[in-house]
Amino acid sequence: MNKADCFHLGHIAKLHGYKGGVSLFLDVTNHEDYRGLDAIFVDINNHLTPFFVESMSLKNNGFAMVKFDGVDDEVTAKKLLRKDVYLPAEILPKLEGTNFYDHEVVGFRVIDEAHGDIGIMQQVIDLKVNPLLQIDKDGTEVLIPLIEGVVKKVDRKKKELHILAPDGLIDLYLG
């Protein structure tokens, strides 16, 4: 499995107990969507390694307590700490309209209704209070708040994200 065919689910944050359990931070919008996972891929030395889930329970604040098959002690579980976790992108349901997955629009050209082409999408900075679109315009970082009504169109075929940024915001960056 290649990372290009996957999406980042989260990372293994800490140990949970002494029998190989770990605390997995789920870096996703809806944690409930991942309740019944039977396997995940852990990035070990830049190779995605499958791990089968023996048991999993969702906790508060985006964490899940996970026990993997074959990880039965603290020493083995410690080797997984701070490792990123992935799932195949093909398991995600297709989104329509202006809805998109954060990883999906990375690399898209961003077109503002008033300013035209404002650069290439670098990432969605997922701040709980105020998520941001991080765009690169010829080496200049442009941050646009991802508030309701900003995204007007997601053109997946052309790899374009059409937006209407708040008045004056783009001028602050690109003057």
Mean pLDDT: 93
CATH superfamily of the largest domain: RimM
Rg value: 19 Å
Report the portion of residues in β strands. Answer: over 45%
Output the CATH topology of the largest domain.
Answer: Elongation Factor Tu (Ef-tu), domain 3
What number of domains? 2
Q: What class do helices, strands and sheet pairing give?
A: mainly beta
| Biggest β-sheet description | 6 strands, antiparallel, barrel
What's the CATH first level of the largest domain?
Answer: Mainly Beta
Helices and strands, in order, run as: EEEEEHEEEEEEEH
What is the CATH architecture assignment of the largest domain?
Beta Barrel
N→C terminal distance: 44 Å
Overall 3D geometry?
elongated
Number of strands: 12
Question: In words, what does this structure look like?
Answer:
- By secondary structure, the chain is mainly β.
- Helices cover 6% and strands 46% of the residues.
- It has a six-stranded antiparallel β-barrel with strand order 1-2-5-4-3-6.
- The termini are far apart.
Topology diagram in text:
Layout: E1 6-16, E2 21-26, E3 39-44, E4 47-58, E5 63-68, H1 74-78, E6 84-88, E7 109-112, E8 116-125, E9 132-137, E10 140-145, E11 151-155, E12 160-163, H2 169-174
Parallel strand pairs: 7-12
Antiparallel strand pairs: 1-2, 1-6, 2-5, 3-4, 3-6, 4-5, 7-8, 8-9, 9-10, 11-12
